[in-house]
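thought: fold this chain, then report.
action: predict
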Amino acid sequence: MDPAPARLTVGIVSAGRVGSALGVALERAGHVVFGVAAISDASVHRARTRLPEARVLPIEQIAQRSELLLLAVPDAELAGLVRGLAGANVVRPGTIVVHTSGANGVAILEPLTQQGALGLAIHPAMTFTGHDEDIARLANACFGVTAADEVGYAIAQALVIEMGGEPVRVEEDQRSLYHAALAHGSNHLVTVIVDAVAALRESLSGPGLLGQPLVDDQPGGLPERLLAPLASAALDNALRRGQAALTGPVARGDVDAVAAHLAALEQVDDRLAEAYRANSLRTAQLAHTDPALLELLAKEGH
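observation:
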């Protein structure tokens, strides 16, 4: 088998945020997306908008006609979909079957690989919102790839490069750790920012200099403008300098300041204060800070 994919006939299950974005990238690379599975109104609209030349078809028809079958369904649905396709015996031998699940390698595709398909795990390490920026961001994204052999890795690498991404090899037994790290660094970052914006909004709830309210409940306002440059700089510093980027009262071991923070946050939301305490404890551990602060945070956490 030639490790560099030629022009392929591509079918996608389903036309969600990920599948439709990858479909556009594959079309731009010269492949032909002939059909997509789309059930919800949002998926149908996304398919018609992003992939207007593709037809919305039943899954079985897509599987039968595909040379490259892209399974872009939620992690929890993947195993059932694979079993169903194998049971229907609709995937032709030699078909390249790619799933986009971050948590899974190629073992989950075994019912299809036993029937002669080539199974690949190709996970874009990117968040998808359903908006146009999804497609543009693929050009700067890494993709975690897992295959059963070197031929599979070569094909996965070629597909990722064609889509404008950077392929990164992830071993089968490391997929859960790989996925956990990405979820921790992205999903939990959103939670921290949302909590911080909520606390800022509360702290700025009084009148401004001209007697008008400083903030309202709409996103993109003053709290976000206050936090954006600081959060952006912190993220950049962390990626450039690692642990050395830690600053602030926890890293300095300022027990009084951290205690005051906790008291203020508890007045707003006990859950927010508890999240701050947990993150402060981990920060203090990384910074090897004042043992008195570690004791305070550990004691308060029980």
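thought: worth noting. The chain has a mean pLDDT of 92.
final: tokens above.
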